[in-house]
Amino acid sequence: MLPATYNLTLAAVMFFIGMGGFLVRRNLLIMFMCVELMLNAVNLMFITYSATLGNDAAHVIVFFIMVVAAAEAAVGLALIMSSFRNREKVNIDEMTLLKH
Amino acid sequence: MVPSLLYQVMWWLLAGLAVIGALMVVTRRNPVHSAMFLVLTLFASSGLYLLLYAHFIAVIQILVYAGAIMVFFIFTIMLLNLHEHELRIPRITPAKVLALVLTLLLAAKVVFMIRQMPGRGGEIAYRLGAWYPEKAPPIPPESYGTAHSIGAVLFSRFLLPFEVASVLLLAVTIGAVMVMRRHEPGEARLKADSGVGLSPPPQIVIEEEMASASKKVEAA
User: Fold this and answer.
1) What is the pLDDT of residues B82-109, one digit of tens each?
2) Distance of CA B83 to CAs A3, A100, B70, B71, B192, Å?
3) Per the CB < 8 Å rule, is A71 touching B168?
4) CA–CA separation, B81 and B135 (whole Å)
5) Among B178, B136, B176, which Cα is nearest to A76's?
6) Do B49 and A44 lie within an 8 Å CB cutoff?
7) Prediction ipTM score
8) Smallest CA–CA separation between B158 and chain A, in Å?
9) Chain A residues close to B109, C-beta within 8 Å
10) Which of A28, B80, B108, B176 could bridge A78 with an S-S bond, Cβ 3.0-4.6 Å?
C-alpha cells in the first residue's frame, strides 16, 4: 500500500476540481455532477484513512454517504426537471425570480 | 512495507484517469459528455478503492454510483431536451475569476497541509506516511473490507443509522414523485374552493394563467 499522503492529495485535488466547477459553471446539471465529484473525493479520503489505520468501520460511513448521494441526486434532479418544465432553463444565472 | 511496482503503476494510472475525468466533467460544454467523464472518474475511483483493499465499497461504487446515479443523470439530460442556446460558451465574469482563485488558494493550502502531516506526533502520524513508499502502512488482514466484516459493523453498531437511511430513501422516493407530478390546470383553485388544501398565493395563479395564455399564443 502506498503512503496515505498519495491518496489524500488525490482526494483533495478531486474535491477542489469539483468545488471549482461548482462555483464557476452555471449549468445546473453540471453543478450537480460537481457535487457528486466532491462526495466521491470525500469517500476516497475516508477509505484511505480506514485502510491506513486498519479499521473498516469507515466503510459503513462511505456506504451512508452513497445512500445520501443517491437520495440527493433523486430529489435534486426531480427539482431541476420541474423547474425546467416551468421556466425552460437550466442556467442558474437566469433564475432570478426571487431577486427583485 | 514497500508496494510492488505493479501496484504503484496501477495507482498512478487510476489516479491520472480520475483526475483527467474530473477535469473533463468540469470543462465540457455538453452535459452528456460531462456525465460520461463522470462515469470514467467513478470507475477509476472504484479501482482506487480496490487498491486500498475496500472490496465491498468498490463493488457498491460501481453498482450504485456508476450504475444507478449516473442513469438518473442521463435520463434527466434526455428528458430535459436542452436547446443549443442553453449550451453556449459561458462568459467570464469577475465573480468566476475570484471563485477560481480562491479555490486554487484553498487547494494549495490543503495539499500543503497534507504534505506537512507526518511527523506531528506518534504512531498514527508515522503510519500516515510521507512521500516515501518505504513508510507505507502495512497491508490489512484478509477479513478487512469484505461484505462480512462490513455487515457485522453495519448491523450492530450502525443499526439505527441504517434504519434511518431506509426511512430517508422512502421519503425521497415519495418526495421525488410529488415534485415531478404534473398539476392539472385549475386543480389548485378547485382545492381552494372546496376548502381542501391551501389556496395558492394570487400572483402565482396569475403567473400560471399568463404562462398558459402565452403557450396558447405560441401554439396558435
Assistant:
1) 776 666 677 788 888 999 999 999 999 9
2) 47, 27, 21, 21, 37
3) yes
4) 52
5) B176
6) yes
7) 0.93
8) 8
9) none
10) B176
